[in-house]
Design brief:
Oligomer: single chain
Family: Belongs to the VPS35L family.
Strand content: under 5%
Organism: Nezara viridula (Southern green stink bug)
Radius of gyration: 46 Å
Structural class: mainly alpha
Keywords: Endosome, Protein transport, Transport
Subcellular location: Endosome
Protein name: VPS35 endosomal protein sorting factor-like
């Protein structure tokens, strides 16, 4: 294993068409065109002419000197200050922001990690004899080559026991050193940093980390290639046609536009890179600067890439070789949009040596590192996927078929099948489905994980049809059933369950679910999240929810999910799917309703003291939607269902509120059906409905919600002539008033209680108008109870709010005094009929009104003492309006009161003047109706109308 220290001369028939392996003739070469053989140590002494019997093109151009050594002799970078800002990202260099590669590199860095210690070998310059600056002054070939040997006499500095984070930080520091050296015009140091980085790719001592190492190192190499390209671009200014002013090269320049000086600099860079003696650094660095060839020629780029491709055949380690090929393909696509031919050739070369991955030398290396073969093969996946993806995205279907055929001919083809399944288009996978199933079957017992192939194929076939789905389903399930690990088994089931649902009957799917239950059993060695996803997938892909619950294995599958959170999430998604699929429909199927109730109960029981309010709210809304979609069409059966649901879902307020509304709804529907002419049976039923609501409402947490529910229930009971239930609900609501908090939570927000209390009281007063008195309780006993409770709410809402509520009660009493009420409930005799304007009843109304009026006047005085003058004026004006509209102003006392209220409302200039003017205009219209000396006329004159 490892990179050979010499090059092989491969004799092939052509550039792309590579003969079989046994045809190659391998010849070992001990010489290097850039290094003279050291004759003083191991080899015999030869003459100077014999040493230089080859033609060295680089020596001719640089006076027989190695350009890398010559440049090194001209620069001294040992004491370089690294505290320099890096250069900006190049604009037109190598495209590092290619989206597919960015996604790929991120996935590689996240997946291929290690806890083992890593090492980095750094080569440091150690001078012998004369200084490096003396090299530039020597002119003889012999002396220069000897000095070159001196310059490249290196010592190794080993950085060992590095953690992964330290290794990444060190490699990133190489990039900073490279950029800083470049900023200081130390080009050779930048080049040598790139070379040092490329050499790190030879090391596969921690094989599972190699893909991440490749990503980190190639980032530095891409940076170097960008710097070289941008430098050449800056030097390549030219004279546009017809202009005498030099301009930068256009975006799509041609080599003939590049001045000769820039071309010469470009050639120098490639001469330097050609001086790199080791194969892998020379190959990687030249690939990194490949785009700079565009300054010299466009026609030879393809030949250059082909030459680099052939050079990869000299790499002995197959893992190093495949990532080198991946880098070449990526650079080729980025530089000149290389077509699939380049990737095809590299993949064919890889396939020719594919058996090397399973050779004894590889097994020995893995045994030394204590790495299993499956993990080792997994390190090839990113590089192969990148190259396979390039073929899959092309329109060369012949290349696809050729590659598919070559892969199917290999033994131990699991790695190749994985890349085909993950990169080829689903349509192609569906077309070759039968062949792929057979090939996957042949991989049983091999090193590459079988479950990975099964899972990948299931995911790729999702939503696609095949020619023989029954065969595929049958054969795949045989393989899945053979998997020993429960987690691998469930992962495959998760991938294939949509395909099974689409091509199976209900009974077949039920058998599959039963197999899952039997296989998992009491095991805990699996992810509950996967099982949760399987359940959700079955529910979401099944065409008929009613048919789904006929399978006797579906609900038991929920019990296998041992994680409460995962089970609750599965139940939540099932209910969401059902409610969404039945937007305008209801269900009465007993099997479906029982199953859904069971699922909802599981969701409800997952709520505990640690559950957040938002979670409770979501669960409550979802179960409420379910309850409203269950309709048996029979009111009595529906009420029994609601009674059972109340016992099942007592911990969720939203569900309790929904149940109360649902029961009230069927009570109203019952009253409508009989047109308020209740029989004994229907009367008993509506009484039962009212009793259900009356018993259920106290379990609701929110006081405002309880008030509203009591009032609605009382109104519906009144509608159904259930007067006793109506009185009981109103009395219960009144008992809550003193217990109200200062603020309540409405839709997750804290709000003041005052507006909600005012709304409730006004709604209640409109109901009390038509509620008949109970003779046992006395006249207007509910209204008296309301006033008594309001007196206890002063600390909750304040004097001003309570005073306004008193005004509302007075208005209600004025309506109650009328001989005929403005509205009634069918079959219910209100107080206007019961009392018939009886004087005792009117006296009671007047007495209550007087007490309330006195209380209001006292409160106005208190507001003045509290300096709440604005509220005092506003309430005074409201009372003034009531007095002049309802009270008999022929009474001198009432007229005086009205005048005093008018003065009080104007005292502090807090009155709405437009409203006051409209009120005065209405009084002026009434003036002819009264005698000239009446109290009303005196009032009008005082108001100066």
């Amino acid at each position: 294993m490892g990179t050979r220290n010499f090059e092989w001369n491969w004799k092939c028939k052509s550039t792309f068409e590579q003969p079989p392996i046994h045809v190659y003739k391998l010849e070992q070469t001990l010489s290097h065109p850039l290094k003279q053989i050291n004759t003083t140590s191991k080899l015999e002494t030869v003459s100077h002419n014999e040493k230089l019997s080859f033609i060295d093109p680089l020596s001719a151009n640089f006076e027989n000197a190695d350009p890398l050594s010559l440049m090194a002799a001209q620069e001294d970078w040992d004491d370089l200050d690294l505290n320099v800002e890096p250069v900006k990202a190049p604009k037109r260099g190598l495209e590092m922001s290619d989206n597919p590669w960015i996604e790929q590199r991120t996935a590689i860095l996240n997946k291929f990690t290690t806890t083992q210690k890593l090492s980095i070998s750094l080569q440091q310059h150690q001078e012998r004899g004369s200084s490096s600056r003396d090299i530039a002054s020597n002119i003889g070939l012999k002396n220069k080559l000897e000095q070159l040997d001196d310059f490249e006499e290196l010592t190794l500095r080993q950085l060992e026991q590095l953690s992964q984070a330290e290794y990444v930080e060190t490699v990133n520091s190489f990039g900073k050193v490279l950029v800083t050296a470049w900023n200081h015009d130390f080009r050779v140091k930048a080049l040598k940093v790139a070379i040092q980085c490329a050499k790190l790719l030879v090391d596969t001592s921690v094989v599972q980390f190699y893909p991440s190492k490749f990503v980190l190192i190639t980032d530095v190499l891409d940076m170097f290639g960008n710097l070289v390209y941008e430098r050449l671009l800056a030097k390549a200014e030219y004279y546009p046609s017809g202009s005498k002013i030099m301009s930068p090269l256009p975006e799509n320049f041609t080599p003939d536009m590049v001045p000769e000086s820039a071309k010469e600099t470009c050639r120098n860079w490639f001469y330097k890179i050609a001086s790199i003696r080791e194969l892998i650094p020379r190959l990687y660095v030249e690939a990194a600067v490949l785009k700079s060839y565009t300054f010299l020629t466009n026609s030879e780029l393809s030949d250059c890439v082909n030459r680099l491709t052939l050079m990869t055949r000299g790499i002995g380690d197959p893992l190093v070789a495949v990532y080198t090929r991946c880098y070449l393909c990526r650079i080729g696509q980025s530089v000149f949009k290389a077509g699939p031919e380049l990737i095809r050739q590299n993949l064919k070369d890889f396939l020719l040596l594919y058996e090397q991955l399973f050779s004894p030398s590889v097994h020995h290396q893995l045994s030394t590192q204590k790495v299993d073969l499956a993990s080792y093969l997994g390190t090839y996946v990113p590089a192969l996927d990148w190259m396979f993806q390039g073929i899959a995205n092309s329109d060369r279907h012949d290349f696809l078929d050729e590659l598919f055929k070559l892969c199917m001919e290999k033994r131990n083809k699991g790695l190749l099948l994985n890349s085909i399944l993950s990169t080829f288009k689903p349509e192609y996978i569906a077309q070759k489905a039968e062949v792929l199933v057979q090939q996957i079957s042949s991989c049983f017992g091999e090193s590459f994980p079988l479950y990975t192939l099964l899972k990948m194929m299931g995911e790729r076939l999702r939503g696609h049809t095949t020619s023989n789905s029954n065969y595929i389903k049958r054969e795949i399930w045989k393989l899945v059933s053979k998997l020993e690990n429960e987690g691998d088994y469930l992962s495959c089931v998760q991938a294939w369950i949509p395909f099974i649902i689409a091509h199976s009957s209900t009974s077949e799917l039920n058998i599959v679910l039963g197999d899952i239950i039997d296989r998992i059993g009491s095991s805990t060695k699996f992810s509950c999240a996967i099982l949760q996803d399987i359940v959700i997938t079955v529910a979401s892909n099944f065409p008929d929810m009613d048919q789904l619950f006929t399978m006797d294995k579906f609900l038991p599958l929920l019990d296998v999910i041992r994680s409460e959170s995962s089970r609750a999430m599965a139940c939540q998604r099932i209910l969401e799917i059902f409610c969404k699929s039945r937007t305008a429909e209801s269900t009465a199927d007993p099997v479906t309703t029982d199953a859904l109730t069971f699922i909802a109960k599981v969701l409800h029981d997952s709520v505990n003291a640690l559950s957040v309010d938002d979670e409770k709210r979501q669960y409550g809304q979802l179960i409420s939607q379910l309850i409203m979609k269950i309709d048996f069409g029979d009111f009595e059966q529906q009420l029994r269902f609601y009674v059972e649901a109340r016992a099942t879902f007592m911990n969720l307020d939203a569900v309790i509120v929904t149940l109360v509304h649902c029961v009230n709804r069927i009570a109203v529907e019952t009253g409508k059906k009989v047109k308020s002419h209740h029989t004994k049976r229907t009367a008993a039923f509506v009484h039962a409905c009212a009793a259900f609501s009356y018993i259920t409402i106290p379990s609701v947490t929110s006081e405002i919600t309880r008030l509203r529910l009591y009032l609605v229930t009382a109104q519906i009971a009144l509608f159904n002539q259930s007067l006793g239930q109506a009185d009981a609900c109103i009395a219960s609501a009144l008992a809550i008033l003193p217990q109200l908090p200062l603020s309540v939570e409405i839709d997750g927000k804290m709000c003041q209680i005052q507006p909600y209390l005012s709304e409730f009281v006004k709604n209640l007063l409109s109901t009390l108008i038509i509620v008949p008195d109970c003779f046992e309780q006395g006249m207007l006993y509910l209204t008296r109870g309301l006033v008594n409770m309001l007196q206890q709410c002063v600390e909750i809402t304040g004097i001003a709010a309570i005073t306004r509520l008193y005004l509302d009660v007075i208005r209600m009493l004025s309506v109650a005094a009328r001989p005929e009420y403005p509205y009634h409930v069918r079959k219910v005799d209100s107080n206007d009929i019961l009392y018939g304007s009886d004087p005792k009843f009117l006296t009671e109304i007047n007495s209550m009104s007087s007490i309330l009026l006195e209380e209001i006047l006292n409160n106005l005085q208190t507001l003045g003492e509290q300096k709440d003058l604005e509220e005092q004026a506003a309430i005074s004006f409201e009372l003034f309006q009531y007095v002049i509209e309802i009270v008999n102003l022929e009474s001198e006392g009432m007229a005086t009161l009205a005048y005093q209220l008018w003065l009080l409302s104007h005292k502090h200039k807090c009155l709405d003047k437009k409203m006051a003017m409209r009120l005065l205009d209405s009084l002026k219209l009434k003036l002819p109706m009264y005698p000239a000396n009446s109290a009303f006329s005196l009032l009008v004159s005082k108001l100066k109308i």
